[in-house]
Amino acid sequence: MSYDRAITVFSPDGHLLQVEYSMEAVRRGSTVVGVQGKDCVILAVEKRAIAKLQDARTIRKILQIDDRTVLAFAGLTADARVLINRVRVEAQSYRLTLEDAPSVDYMARYLAGIQQRYTQQGGVRPFGIATLVTGIGADPKQPNKPFLYQTDPAGTHSRWKAQVIGGRNAKTLREFLEKNHVDGADEPAALKLAVRALLEVVDSGAQTMEVCVMREGGKIVHMTEEAVDAVVKEIEAEQQQSEEQKQGDS
């Protein structure tokens, strides 16, 4: 029997093969890095090469859900568009019904709930995307502090201090973040860590990066290519200085 023919059939070893295939679609997508700082969250995305005549502004991997929640995704762009539109509608419905903005925890749970439903019924297939979501309102004691959440095609969601999704080198980059992440880092340090991680997989520096900063209070800043390039040059200068010191010591 082919256990990958139907989404609702488990294989003998307990796997839903269609869900695992959707996770493979995520691995084939662009790399997305998220880093939690003391009072900010950094989202950095690898921008793949586009056609010479294509307008780069129409290819976005970092999108706003509402005025205080931002999402970055890895995987199938068409699936992401459909899923994000549904989450945006829910955010507006929540405001209309409860007269309050939804928290990032609520939005991540809602998004993961949709993804999970598409693993449990016939006639559909899982969404081929994983997401990193950041926003405020998740902690009543720190209502203005942004937090970082992840969802995946299986429908799980969880909070992270730093995480990588998409790309073939996600495991290596996650180990890099585990080694270099510092709790309570300020915005410049968190930004450098995210960009350093992405530099491990991109070739053209700032030209192939998209970076967004979520600051305290829900302020969203999409960094320009010039601003990202300044961070890249600073990182390269620090690496060169470190290499010169090692050569001097030896």
* Discrete helix count: 6
Provide mean pLDDT, rounded: 92
Order of H and E elements: HEEEEHHEEEEHHEEH
Q: State the separation between the terminal residues, measured CA to CA.
A: 63 Å
Main sheet: which strands, in order across?
8-1-2-9-10
Structure description:
The protein is an alpha+beta fold and 250 residues long. 38% of the residues lie in helices and 22% in strands. It contains 6 helices and 10 strands, in the order αββββααββββααββα. A 5-stranded antiparallel beta sheet has the order 8-1-2-9-10. A 5-stranded antiparallel beta sheet has the order 3-4-5-6-7. A hairpin with a 3-residue loop joins strand 1 and strand 2. Helix 2 crosses helix 3. The protein is globular and about 65 Å long. It starts with 16 loop residues before the first helix and ends with a helix. The model has no long low-confidence stretch (mean pLDDT 92).
Structure summary:
The chain is an alpha+beta fold. Helix content is 38%, strand content 22%.
Q: What are the main properties of this structure?
A:
globular; 250 residues; five-stranded antiparallel β-sheet; single chain; alpha+beta
Provide the fold topology.
Elements: H1 17-27, E1 32-36, E2 40-46, E3 62-66, E4 69-75, H2 77-98, H3 104-117, E5 129-135, E6 147-151, E7 157-160, E8 162-165, H4 170-180, H5 187-199, E9 209-215, E10 220-222, H6 225-249
Antiparallel strand pairs: 1-2, 1-8, 2-9, 3-4, 4-5, 5-6, 6-7, 9-10
Helix pairs in contact: 2-3, 4-5, 5-6
